[in-house]
Amino acid sequence: MAERRRERPIGPALDRSLIDRARNGDLDAFETIVRARMDAVYRLTSAILGDEADARDAAQETFVLAWREMSRLREPDKFEAWLQRVAVNAARMTLRARGRRRIREIPSSQVDVLAGHVATDDTADASRLDAALSMLPVDQRAILVLHHLDGRPLAELATILDIPIGTAKSRLFAARRELEAALRADETDR
Amino acid sequence: MNDDRRPTDWPDDRLAAAFRARADARPTPSDLSATTMDRVRLAPRISPTRDRFVRLGGVVAAAAVVAIVAGALAARPTTDPTGSASPTTFGLPVLSVTEAIAIRDGGVDDREIALRGFLATFGPMPCPPPTTDFTTLNNPTRLWCESAQTWVMEQAEVLVSRTSTSVSAQPPRGPALKPGLALVDTTGLGLLGESDFPSAVVFIGHFDDRRADFCPADLRPTCADTFIVDRIDRATMQTITLKDQVATGQTDSEIDALIQRVDPGLRILSRRVVAIENLGLTEPVYLATPSGTPSYVSSAAWVVTALPPVDASDRAVARTFVIFDGTEIISEITRNGPVQVTLGQAPSSQDPTSTATPSPSPSGTSNLATVIGKPITVTEAIDHRDNHLDATEIIVRGYGWAPSGLIACTVIRIAPPALDQCPDGYAWIGERKPVASGPEFPQPDGPAINLLVRRWTYLAFALEDQPREVLAFGHFDDARAAQCAPELVERCRRNFLVDAILDPARGWPADNASSPSLSCGEGLPVPDCAAAAGAALESLGVNDGVPTEIEIGRGVWCPTPGLLFLNTSCPGGGLPPADGGQWIANGLVTFRDSPAQAYLNIARSGSVIKVKAIALATPPPSPN
Fold first, then answer.
1. pTM of the model
2. Measured by CB atoms within 10 angstroms of the end CB, which terminus of chain A is less buried, N or C?
3. Complex ipTM, two decimals?
């Protein structure tokens, strides 16, 4: 039996009237939405892209695109999923627009702080995950982030990505398999 | 292929924890909502029931729709606005707005177009203040606020209607396109709202301007559709220079003469003079390359657009050149970025048959990778100059001195940096320490060469009139020798341009045999690179080790937990530099017998190079 697709807020619930006002061009209402959803959107773009500047650009693009297109949103009840889809697309566009960057992976424990930068304790896995994710296509990163970071079940993945549940399931499986391969390759290199 | 059935070391809970740790290490920037709203306010909004009315000055009643007054039109020209103008200008056929739109919509085509039409604007209107998006807003292809409400129309439509209490306006109903007028002097076009009636114009310009590539991704198609006006065809046929409030060392005619040396067939369409710090606002490529603006060369730049001869099919693509004021340093701005132009021979009435050209520098470019070996003596440096002249970066060890105070020079001309002039002749590096001879300024005792110290030279200390041991990073045969007058080129090539002065007494290099090699990233000017290397070495702690390799490259190191990555900007990494200025490069220093590397960011504030140490760290083995 298919899971029922439903809208789950990605932060404190937004008043429907706020969304309607924003759809009708109320900039103040839209600003309220931006402030309420920026954390979630930035968290998503940052997790997909890895790069802080890119994530920032993509988060901004997400809301600019949302503002432009919002009046054409047919199902305001699905605003949250729609916004996340816009964010995934913005991340995809940002990645496409950027050239490949040089990244130096440095175990945090070995970073001697000269510039006031302090590493957190539990970042070894995060660092390895970062490196592994960077080897995956953006669509695979997106589905992994939505599932493992945001805890989205398959039905919501399908809604956000606008794909059938079966497709979401197979894509998630493939992405997970690629991620683990990348993590294993990273271990082999160490 | 990977074995899918292999038991995973990364079960869901571990993966989720790693995702969370990774996300928690990257909190949302506190200013992101505000800067996003700045962009949103400027973004066009798509509406299923597109609102065709624009509010002006807050006094417009929403319902105020005023039809175009036919009677007003009757008094205005409605036919060919070129009047008695020639059907061609600059060899280009003069096209209607409809014809131009057909070219615009026919695919990427940046040919130059002469366009006739009627210019109208909504007039002055309140604009949101540009904030964080300032740089992209100033892209000449990106129209916003007032400039987005200006049209070239096929017919002379009146767009603004007024009553005693309100003003309303609507976009043109007939064929119209939006011109980008940032590069030309618009005086007299009525853009200040002097009249609601359109004025007849002939513009020379093009679509698909390369600067559209620097617009935000979602706006690039719109930017590419902007008709960039390179020239307003005026009755006087004069080329008017649009000039910022900045003094220039060259005149219009001198600039035109330089362009003629690039290609005698070029015809000047427009000249734009900008303060050097604003060059990126006219040519965004300079904003995209952190050290791409050689601000040490000039305080102003000329941006000149010129048209080559029109071909048999009436086509020509305009070329844009940036000339650093007071010099003959010219770059052509192409879709791939600035390309330095080698000038042809200046016309000479005295020697019209001369075929001599400046002997090209073996390096010929500022983008070469440069290698520094161990320090050499002054005698060896002279041998290098006389027998192996090239632009290899060298370190000369010797005694250096220069006048401690001001020295009177009768005249200092604007000249290429490779040309020696007063007071260069007073700065020396000698093999031996001169014997003091009373209060007189020391004269070399044995082999010595002059040091050409420039504004961008990194100085670990100032040279004084008392000779002291120094290490001088620098090179002969600077690429800019080609900009010296023909008869002085060889002399300029033999001059030693100093990129950095370091103190050998400080302990570096402790061992001459292990002096570091230096590599400069692609596109990074050698003076910047070498000066940055000097500053980088000075910044290292005495106990960090003996440096064996210095890599200087574009971008800056951005620190995040567990990662350092390169970027052109680094919002979370402490940008802009705490002491002002701008980042110009990053540095990576490798040490002998040590797995650690020093990660540095390098900034320039005015003529001062500064180094910010980011981390001393040991990277994991490379997969390669």
1. 0.39
2. N
3. 0.83
